[in-house]
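Lecture notes, continued. The same structure-token format from the folding unit now serves as the input rather than the output. Read the line below as a description of shape only.
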């Protein structure tokens, strides 16, 4: 089936309100959502949370869009996606909790502001917002002034320049978030080197000489007997191509999973753990299977690691389900800071996290040790002695193809090594 134009799909959805069409549009615009979300990585919030908020903005745009206004849907949706993420970040940045009535009023003002911005092609005036809401101008001004009290900083000032970039979004020319592809840890260089193989020979040569050998453009031109202008052209185009290859590989895999989940009607239920909002064990299983299949096709490796927060049952019972979920949620942030952006962390079990390591299987042991050390240090610094002394970090790992033949063997071996690590830790503790 040929891919239909997004604008056509949106027009048909506005007429029929068909949920299957909505899902198809969501999948088709997943690149837009994730491209925008990645622009806000500097906020410090998990990328999964930012992407999730972006999808909420997209769904809101589908419900509010009016084709008769003559505005392109992707332009309209961009404003609402950006607005939704900003609204989420504003809430996360508050020191004092807003009253419920003020939150609701601010939410209405934000939605109206985004809609009027899309309609007029500029930020609306306070009077225009007031007229749309049926409020007095003074009342809107009071709300806008009041909410400044609850904000740590202005996100609008930080990101306003980037909105111009998205306003002319082209589905065929996705602007991927730049990847810092050089001066990387050894395991991350594997990803880049794999992507480099898809470039032309001359592109590989120029990138290697410039970024790794440290030659300038004039020296490279002399060494390869080409002009300086051609070297500059290759550097610019090859770097962009490399970033796109690295980024799209991750996105395509996520989109395939989303497409299957949407078709089954269990999108969020399958992808996200309901208690923590982390990626679910089901999602990790599907992604791991796909990564093993890809590694088999391209003669690459993939690793998997599990991390357990072990404690006596009485201690776990005393904490309760909510506290355990919060513990795993905070721990996942520590893991993400320790590994690459391309690695995937999720909830693997009741008190365990799973970590998927594409292209870096042979480095799984060292990565697992590094993550376990980071988690141990975090427990010691972030919690009181009475808290962190109740927990021990156990971990296990495995990687394809040296350790195992498929995804199931990999997870079993990782779990077995976790049990072995747990047993060794107990022996050392008893001996002490």
């Amino acid at each position: 089936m040929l891919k239909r134009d997004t604008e056509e799909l949106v027009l048909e959805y506005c007429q029929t309100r068909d949920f299957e069409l909505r899902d198809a549009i969501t999948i088709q615009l997943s690149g837009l959502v994730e491209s925008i979300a990645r622009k806000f990585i500097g906020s410090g919030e998990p990328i999964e949370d930012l992407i999730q908020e972006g999808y909420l903005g997209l769904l809101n745009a589908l419900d509010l869009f009016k084709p008769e206004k003559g505005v392109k849907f992707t332009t309209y949706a961009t404003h609402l996606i950006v607005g939704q993420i900003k609204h989420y970040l504003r809430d996360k940045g508050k020191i004092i909790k807003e009253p419920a009535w003020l939150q609701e009023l601010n939410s209405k003002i934000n939605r109206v502001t985004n809609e009027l911005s899309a309609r007029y092609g500029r930020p609306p005036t306070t009077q225009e917002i007031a007229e749309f809401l049926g409020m007095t101008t003074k009342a809107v001004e009071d709300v806008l002034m009041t909410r400044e009290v609850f904000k740590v900083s202005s996100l609008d000032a930080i990101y306003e320049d980037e909105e111009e970039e998205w306003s002319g979004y082209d589905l065929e020319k996705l602007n991927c978030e730049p990847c810092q592809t050089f001066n990387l840890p050894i395991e991350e260089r594997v990803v880049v080197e794999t992507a480099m193989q898809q470039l032309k020979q001359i592109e590989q040569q120029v990138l290697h000489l410039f970024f790794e050998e440290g030659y300038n453009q004039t020296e490279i031109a002399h060494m390869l007997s080409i002009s300086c202008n051609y070297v500059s052209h290759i550097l610019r185009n090859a770097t962009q191509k490399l970033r796109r290859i690295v980024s799209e590989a991750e996105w395509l895999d996520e989109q395939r999973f989303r497409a299957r989940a949407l078709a089954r009607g269990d999108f969020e239920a399958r992808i996200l753990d309901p208690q923590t909002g982390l990626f679910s064990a089901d999602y990790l299983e599907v992604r791991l299977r796909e990564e093993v299949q890809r590694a088999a096709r391209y003669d690459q490796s993939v690793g998997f690691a599990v991390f357990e927060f072990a404690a006596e049952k009485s201690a776990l019972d005393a904490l309760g389900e909510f506290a355990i979920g919060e513990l795993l949620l905070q721990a996942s942030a520590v893991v993400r800071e320790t590994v690459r952006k391309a690695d995937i962390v999720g909830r693997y079990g009741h008190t365990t996290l799973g970590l998927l390591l594409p292209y870096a299987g042979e480095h799984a042991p060292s990565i697992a040790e590094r993550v376990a050390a980071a988690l141990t240090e975090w427990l010691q610094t972030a919690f009181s002695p009475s808290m962190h002394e109740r927990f021990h970090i156990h971990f296990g790992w495995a990687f394809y193809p040296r350790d195992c033949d498929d995804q199931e063997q990999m997870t079993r071996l990782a779990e077995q090594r976790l049990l072995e690590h747990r047993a060794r830790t107990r022996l050392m503790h008893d001996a002490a």
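Point for the exam: The domain at 6-167 is CATH 1.20.120 (Four Helix Bundle (Hemerythrin (Met), subunit A)).
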